[in-house]
Amino acid sequence: MAESKEYMTLPEENGSINISEEVIAAIAVGAVREVEGVSGMMTSLGGSVTDLVNNKKNAQKGTRGVKIDMTGAALKLDLYLTVRYGTPIPEVAENAQKAVSSAVEAMTGCSVEAVNIHVGGVTTA
Length: 125
Fold this sequence. Notes:
The chain is of the alpha+beta class. It is built from three helices and seven strands; from the N terminus they run E-E-H-E-E-H-E-E-H-E. The protein is elongated, with a radius of gyration of 15 Å.
């Protein structure tokens, strides 16, 4: 049975482009993986942690830790992260916001209104 998916639709001259919510989430996860100090993603605050640093398969596979609001003209993303102990959380969060916003806009052409970072834990690894 087919799963119901949300799509961001971009009208073009020759038709339209539909980008799946899963694609946008995968782009966000890929961007946040590159941010120094981010150690993992959580399904939600208090949920399980997906190791982004040592487990590329999990990071590429799913959209865990990313919530997307596609109502309106621009995207709003919520990312649930863990940070590495000893790194300044506000700096890591700001760098994650910039990386995600830039990557999503560059790869999809969709404008990003907000990237909300939720830090739900600190890891020593």
